[in-house]
Amino acid sequence: MDPTCEAFPKLSADWYKALRKVYGISGKMFGGDLFHEGGCKGDINVTRAAQAVQGAMQKASPGSSWVIQAWGGNPSRELLAGTDPKHALVLQLTKDMADGGKNLRTFDGIPWVWCELANFGGNTGLYGGVPLLSRLGSDLAGYRDKGLVGMGTLSEGLETNPLHYALFSDRLWTAEDIPVRDWLRKYARQRYGAAPAAVVRALEILSSSIYNPARSQEGCTESIICARPSWDVRKASTWSSGERYYHLGDIVKAARGYLKAANDQPSLVKEETFRYDLVDVVRQALADAAFYQLQRVRSAFDAGDVPAYRKQVKLFLSLVSDMDALLATDSQFLLGTWQKKALDWGSTRQEKALMDKSAKMLITTWIDQAPRALNDYSNRQWAGLVADFYLPRWKNFFESQLDVLTGKKDRAAAQAAFMDKTVREELAFAGNGKVYSTKSSGDALAVANRVMNAHREMLDALSAEERHSTGTPWDLQQGSPLQFNVTDQVTGPGTYTATFQWKNGPSALKIHSVKLYEGNREVAADNHEGWTGVENKDNSYRLDLKKYRTNLDSYILKAEVSGVSPGDSKGEMTLKKKAR
After folding, report:
1. CA-to-CA distance for 50 and 42, rounded, in angstroms?
2. What is the rounded CA–CA span in Å between residue 455 and residue 100?
3. Nearest CA-CA partner of 391 in 511, 286, 241
4. What's residue 251's pLDDT?
5. Does an H or E element contain 578, and which?
6. Contact of 440 with 270, CB cutoff 8 Å
7. Which residues are registered as beta bridge partners of 561?
8. What is the pLDDT of residues 144-160, one digit of tens each?
């Protein structure tokens, strides 16, 4: 309803009356966003609309505050112009865990709160901003006379990354910068009751690598284990990040540090907090190793070597199986723990079945349709979910590619069959009726030791082979146009450069045009002939993005291409934003 229309005062009065009846209070703070993720104002006067919304609020609950979320372009200058600063508060959602304390927006005299948003969808993965939070006192100092009144957290999932949230909580009590190394030692003692040198060193490694993102991104770097499989997969969900800004070797070192401390002092594992972190960091090592192990599987596939392919596939699948066994040793990493909370809300058999299906659907397909943009948005690395949802998908994929390798099917037929089976199984999972255990199984230290020892050679080799790359692979056999989901790389309006580099194959790649799409709408383009091979010519494409949206649209880059000569061509596309 248009807040400036004649019926609005009565509707709003009835709404506040119903609220008082239900909750027994008149309310002091009301959250509500007219244009949180997009929206269309049409011919509505937004300034007058804001005045009407706030006027009705004050009439029903004098002295209350309108709480508005700052996300993307919301709130607009038009909306702010119609808002009384004395009765409003803006929550500035900050997803940038690299440099999110600088170049912040202020709101024309309306008080605002700096809010960290480090987790999207409750995803599992080590992530946060230790260097950012440690220096936030200095970064925010200049904003205290520009409306900044406090700090808050708006992460979509808080049951992950205790290191990040512990530092954030300590940040609330001081405006001074926090020395990270000293803080980490104190944190270890507070969390575990002891601060073994191996653990402190592991925390230092994590704080300077995975807890120190290179740029803004939406949540953790997701593991491909949780992704719908493909050869070029880099992440699980549409808007998340596939950015590998840290090295696998760092995570392996940290995991081994925790294991050393636990083996030297087994009583540590009796502490719930230590056991959780031990499982978490070893889980992260396996989660990251899967990305690099997939490249080995791909190499065997490309070489047409069936025995090598089977061997590398077996190693990949063993990583996934061992992850599930590890997660099962701690109740906080169980699908059953999540499921029971949902089941407990149901009173009848029908209600429990509905709650069960809804809980499973939320962390898999999100809705009862697939494929959709929100597929795997809320992916989790939990025992039961890994074994029964993610592992079968990867098995199906590798089997389909084996059919291609052995000549039973061509690529198109194999992909079609794989997707048909995958979608059916994804949708069936939520309604499978299976009840998962809420009790952990196995000894966390023993399983962690077994898993790290079983994959020692692989982890060492992958860490040594790892190439730190932000490029996205392409393969001419995919056909034209080449398509790349660049949602996590497009971080705001500005000029972006897409560069194509050839890596191998008998043909160079000829590029005719590159276009950027926001959902299905073209928003930037560069049309010129270029090619990439042993020699590159005009292989960079400029894309000027005038406006940026943070709502549910994805950013897709499409390149019209062809081969310069017969045969396949493979390489990487790198998208970079020009610095201001």
Report:
1. 15
2. 37
3. 286
4. 97
5. none
6. no
7. 511
8. 999 999 999 999 988 99
Give pLDDT tens digits for 312-339. Answer: 999 999 999 999 999 999 999 999 999 9
Can you give the pLDDT at residue 215?
A: 87
What are the Cα distances from residue 432, in Å, to 120, 437, 570?
Answer: 26, 15, 41
Provide the token pair at 169: 């909580």
**Paired tokens of 426:** 């994804």
Q: Which residues of the chain have pLDDT under 50?
A: 468-469
Q: What pLDDT was estimated at residue 465?
A: 81
Map residue 152 onto helix, strand or coil: strand
C-beta separation of 116 from 168 below 8 A: yes
Residue 515, number of CB atoms within 10 A of its CB: 19
pLDDT at 162: 97
pLDDT at 80: 97
Distance (Å, rounded) from C-alpha 36 to C-alpha 33? 5
pLDDT for 468: 46
Residue linked to tokens 């909750």:
23
Task: Give the closest residue to 320 by CA, choosing from 387, 419, 245, 402.
Answer: 387
Measured CA to CA, the distance from residue 35 to residue 224 in angstroms comes to: 33
Pairing of strands 148-153, 112-116: parallel
Q: Please name which of 346, 351, 196, 347 lies closest in space to residue 278, comparing C-alpha atoms.
A: 196
The 3-class SS string of 416-476 reads: HHHHHHHHHHHHHHHCCCCCCCCCCCCCHHHHHHHHHHHCHHHHHHHHHHCCCCCCEEEEH
Are the C-beta atoms of residues 382 and 334 closer than 8 Å to each other? yes
> What was the pLDDT predicted at 285?
98
The whole-angstrom separation of Cα 289 and Cα 43 is 53
What gap in Å lies between CA 38 and CA 72, rounded to an integer?
8
Cα 566 to Cα 580: distance, rounded to the nearest angstrom = 42
Helix (H/G/I), strand (E/B), else coil: 264: helix
Give the C-alpha separation, 533 to 450, whole Å: 45
Q: Are 250 and 176 in contact (CB under 8 A)?
A: no
Amino acid identity of 487? T
The identity of residue 119, as a single letter, is: N
Note the pLDDT of residue 119: 96
The one-letter amino acid at 89:
L
Distance CA 425, CA 401 (A): 18
SS3 74: strand
